[in-house]
Amino acid sequence: MKPVVKRYIFCVLIAMLLWAFTTSAQIFEVPDYKIESKEDYAKYDDDIIKATDWLQQTEWTKEVVIQSNATKFIFDWIEGSPAVTVSISKPLMDLTDKNPKLLMTFMSFYVKYSLQHKAEPDNNKANIYAIKALISKYKTEPTHKKDSDVEKLLKLDAENKLDAWVTTDFVKS
User: Cα separation of 98 and 116, whole Å?
Assistant: First the structure.
């Protein structure tokens, strides 16, 4: 074989190995959790963050059972958490009415931000972080339904006006 062909084959093999590694790295296992007291929540903080990131990276039509279990885990955690409270507002409902799974994106990223910034809690920053995650999921999710409310946020983000919208229009409602 010619050296050029060998290099090409070698590069293709390396690329295939890297692809295989990255796809296998996306496997997530929901913990076997028991939440019986307020003290139980903190021991799942890292798992909540991992579940949040995994859901963000996984298309809605892939690994549906694991997604359902991860969503239930996050929701159960949020429902009774003494550390984090997520508010569901009218503007948030408008942003997620056509793509209801974006509601969990928002809630889980709000929680993620709150867990990672316990020392300096800031609802505005948590809302901004969660809205940006919602926008990111909307843009990367191939099966999303077009939503004019989210499309408006895409424009605001492109114009660097999203943070201001979140701290005024989104929060006031």
Answer: 30
